[in-house]
């Protein structure tokens, strides 16, 4: 669309003022180069006209603090990479005008029980995340994780949802999965159902679990170690969310009193 506008402008300028031809062509080249090097512009069908200001997304980067989650053979930890992707996702959504809350924005758990056993901290952590999610009343809940399985052959980002929580979960999952397929070019997986993920089981809000790749697969682990690829994954998820919002057909749920929502004092990083 922009390129067509540029072409029209070029014809007008060249016809009226031939002396500006060289300057204009230099400018046009600069514009095209900047478009070509901007983050993933050619793959994006961004519904910028959709009303996003009233939309609340809750991002839940899994694990944190004493719970590293899965690890790659090279030692990359799930808790670190999902936090990194979550922070980029937050920034992209905020740039699009959405309101974003996160269950954590640094390396800590939410247990607030530093002297408890790891199992007890994990139990309290998950319970606290669920409380935050329910208190938020978010339009969408995005839980971020990375997969790891005994076999190294499985790879690709995949979105999981609960089918027994209404049709919105599947719609959201499908929108994000399609964006991951289109934009990363590194997954051909389809959405899948899950019934045992605690966070999804505890909420009635539209919620999905995005497994951003397999740390047990060499190619996925190599990609996820790259900052640019993690940003690309975040970009894809945000496009999937925006498309979901754009197709929802309303302005979102009533804006919540965000200031009344307080996160628990986190434990010190450990
Ligand atoms: Zn996980």
What's the layout of helices and strands?
Layout: H1 2-16, H2 21-37, E1 56-61, H3 78-95, E2 99-102, H4 118-136, E3 140-147, E4 158-161, H5 167-184, E5 192-193, H6 198-201, E6 207-214, H7 218-224, H8 227-248
Parallel strand pairs: 1-2, 1-3, 3-6, 4-5
Antiparallel strand pairs: 4-6
Helix pairs in contact: 1-2, 3-8, 5-8
Bound molecules: zinc ion.
The site of zinc ion has 5 residues, from loops.
Q: What is the overall number of helices?
A: 8
Assembly state: single chain
How far the N terminus sits from the C terminus, by CA atoms, comes to 50 Å
What would the principal axes of the Cα set say about the shape?
A: globular
Class by SSE composition: alpha/beta
- Fraction of residues in helix: 40-55%
CATH topology of the largest domain: Aminopeptidase
CATH superfamily of the largest domain: Zn-dependent exopeptidases
């Amino acid at each position: 669309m922009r390129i067509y506008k540029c072409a029209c402008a070029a014809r007008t300028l060249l016809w009226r003022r031939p002396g500006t031809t060289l300057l204009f062509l230099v400018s046009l080249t600069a514009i095209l180069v900047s478009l070509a090097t901007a983050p993933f512009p050619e793959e994006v069908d961004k519904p910028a006209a959709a009303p996003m200001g009233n939309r609340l997304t809750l991002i839940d980067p899994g694990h944190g603090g004493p719970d590293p989650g899965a690890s790659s053979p090279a030692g990359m930890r799930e808790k670190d990479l999902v936090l990194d992707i979550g922070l980029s996702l937050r920034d992209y959504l905020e740039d699009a005008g959405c309101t974003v809350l996160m269950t954590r924005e640094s390396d800590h758990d939410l247990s607030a029980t530093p002297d408890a056993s790891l199992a007890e901290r994990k139990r309290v952590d998950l319970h606290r995340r669920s409380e935050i999610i329910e208190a938020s009343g978010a339009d969408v809940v995005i839980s971020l994780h990375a997969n790891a399985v005994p076999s190294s052959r499985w790879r690709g980002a995949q979105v999981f949802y609960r089918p027994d929580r209404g049709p919105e979960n599947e719609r959201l999952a499908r929108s994000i999965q399609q964006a991951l397929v289109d934009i990363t070019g590194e997954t051909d997986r389809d959405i899948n159902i899950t019934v045992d993920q605690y966070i999804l089981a505890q909420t009635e809000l539209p919620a999905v679990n995005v497994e951003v790749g397999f740390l047990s697969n060499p190619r996925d682990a190599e990609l996820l170690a790259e900052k640019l690829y993690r940003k690309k994954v975040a970009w894809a998820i945000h496009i999937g969310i925006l498309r979901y919002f754009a197709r929802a057909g309303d302005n979102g749920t009533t804006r919540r009193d965000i200031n009344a929502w307080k996160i628990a004092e986190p434990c010190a990083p450990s």
